[in-house]
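Protocol step 4 of 5: obtain the predicted structure for the target chain.
Materials: sequence only (see below). No template structures provided, no constraints applied. The aim of this step is simply to have a reference model before the mutagenesis design in step 5. Sequence pasted as it appears in the construct record:
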Amino acid sequence: MSLEKEIDVEYRDILYETQDRVLTLTLNRPDKLNAFTSRMMWELLDALDRADADDEVRVIIVTGAGRGFCAGADLSGGPGTFDNRESGSDVGLEEHRDGGGRVSLRIFDCKKPMIAAINGPAVGVGITLTLPMDIRLASERARMGFVFSRRGLVPEACSTWFLPRVVGISRALEWVHSGRVFDAQEALAGGLVRSVHPHEELLPAARELAREIVDNASAVSVALARQMLWKMLGADHPLEAHRVESRAIYAMGELADAREGIAAFLEKRESHFKLKPSQDMPAVYPWWEERTF
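Step 4 output (structure tokens):
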């Protein structure tokens, strides 16, 4: 049985736990500081598909088991870990796709907002896979590093696209060129994380942030806005954003959540949104696949 089929039965390298419409995905190889494996990649891809299809999941938190978030790629294969000739792979240069990049691209297209709760060391793919997540919080114990140059490698997981957009090109180049590991306060100063917390308060802070979204926002509005903001980072001109926004506001204005949100405001009460991202996304979604402008 292929790994892709096996993970439909149970997860091993991650934990999938839902509570009060918040999904917590925990990287679960604590004895290896949650080092990234091919199996973890497939499990994360499967979990994100599952979460997108489940309207009871409104927000996703990603964290690590034990004292680490993710120590990067599993290097137990030795010096030839990244040498496809030694692995016996028959995939060529043009066909090869790195595993972290596959996860990052799936996160990029996810309908649910994602919060990284970085509870400990996060280096290599352990930090690059958080870049397409919406918000990053860090424990005071967290250490981060884009260590590729110190391993004779280059950045992966689409980080050459995401990192400059998150922290700016100069900061990105400094961290990537040096490959050094830095602490949570430097990550905060550089805009990589939103906030730094005492270790025991990290997950409660992430859950409080998740609840702010779950309790107050339309799931369809959040799903659509998430894609609008991320996809517009690659736009050549604000006119592209204007076109998408015009279509989206037109389409959303006809749906029940817009009526409910405005009525709740006028009546000075909480909103009770009913639309579901799995089945009620407006026809404008996914506009980026149309390639019409």
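Step 4 remarks: Confidence is low (pLDDT under 50) at residues 1-9. The CA atoms of residues 77 and 94 lie 23 Å apart.
Proceed to step 5.
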